[in-house]
Specification:
Length: 350
């Protein structure tokens, strides 16, 4: 009998560090061929491009699938199931499947989808990993930038649950086989220890709570948990069942999509990455930008610089050579409607 393909579900709010964690995993995959399903926010595809940047056999472009039609737990039948069927039906299927959910996704409906007849015989949920922004959770906010999370919620026309962040966080903890306290470097040791103890007490018995910075978790810790989560749904109780299955004819979507906007700023090469990072942080503060991310061309550097900012905190790293691609700086700006695009573009281009 053919062994089932293991799948890992990675949950966590916007800015917790899911993409960084996955990128580190791909860089250290040790020959394991991994397929990614990414529940992207918006339609600009930057997170997918960041993950495609590793350029080796662990994450070939054809193994990365982006689901950009909204919250993955709300589009299981339309998006997730067909994507899974296509991946596992390949002549050379992946060794492992990693699913990065939207920060607003409820984990339990996604785990439940692995009981689908065409999926259950071929794939098993190796583990559910909840990535948390340690400092934000310790401060009681759950996410570093609550406005950015709200923007993500409002921008998703497919979202059919209006779940408070506290309940979403509780659902993520309840469903997790491993909780990753990320950004531990931003906290003192006593605060990290206290948070790890608190989450250990809140989680199911046997759930591992680990601490890390910059998503640097060993692959052998992240993958290979063998949880079989789809067979253990009763223990992963939902705090509330938020999806609407009744009240036919009622409109449960109350999103005002005109309240938020996003646009792309392009410019040429920059000479000083540190100064540019300070410049970006200043522009974010001055214009109340919720999220900014993209790629930067640095003079004299063959590698492109990936830049991600949640609030005024800017993180950068070099990911892959430009090769034959145009050497330009390309940044996605996300914020509330009414952003002064001209002023922002000028400030980022100066």
């Amino acid at each position: 009998m053919q062994a089932k393909i293991p799948a890992t579900i990675v949950t966590g709010f916007l800015g917790a560090g899911k993409t960084t964690l996955i990128r580190h995993m791909l860089d250290n995959a040790n020959g394991k061929r991994i397929a990614l399903i990414i529940n992207e926010f918006g339609d600009l595809g930057v997170d997918g491009d960041i993950l495609k940047g590793c350029g080796d056999e662990a994450c070939a472009d054809e193994d990365i699938v982006e689901l950009s039609n909204g919250c993955i737990c709300c589009t299981v039948a339309d998006d997730f199931i067909p994507t899974m069927q296509a991946l596992i039906s390949r002549e050379n299927p992946p060794d492992h499947i990693v699913i990065e959910t939207s920060g607003l996704a409820l984990p339990q409906p996604l785990v439940r989808a692995f009981g689908w007849p065409d999926i259950s015989t071929r794939v098993t949920v190796d583990g559910v990993v909840a990535v948390v922004d340690g400092k934000a959770v310790a401060d009681g906010q759950f996410a570093a930038n609550l406005a950015a999370v709200d923007a993500q919620r409002r921008a998703d026309s497919g979202l059919d649950h209006e779940t408070p962040l506290s309940e979403l966080f509780a659902d993520q903890v309840a469903s997790a086989d491993m909780i990753v306290v990320n950004k531990a470097d931003l906290m003192n040791a006593d605060a990290v220890d206290a948070l790890v103890k608190r989450l250990t007490d809140e989680a199911r018995k046997g759930v591992h709570v680990v601490r890390t910075s910059h998503g640097e978790l060993p692959v052998e810790v992240l993958l290979g948990q063998g949880a079989g989560a789809e067979n253990d749904l009763e223990a992963r109780h939902e705090i509330h069942h938020h999806h609407h299955d009744d009240d036919e004819g009622e409109d449960h979507h109350h999103h005002d999509h005109d309240d938020f906007e996003s646009f792309v700023v392009t410019r040429g090469e920059i000479s000083d990455p540190a100064s540019f990072g300070e410049q970006v942080s200043s522009v974010i503060r001055n214009h109340d930008i919720l999220r900014l991310k993209g790629f930067v061309a640095v003079s004299g550097k063959p590698m492109r610089l990936t830049l991600q900012a949640v609030g005024p905190r800017v993180d950068t790293y070099y990911d892959q050579p430009f090769g034959s691609k145009l050497r330009e700086t390309r940044l996605v700006v996300i914020g509330q409607a009414g952003l002064d695009r001209t002023a922002i573009t000028t400030a980022l281009s100066s």
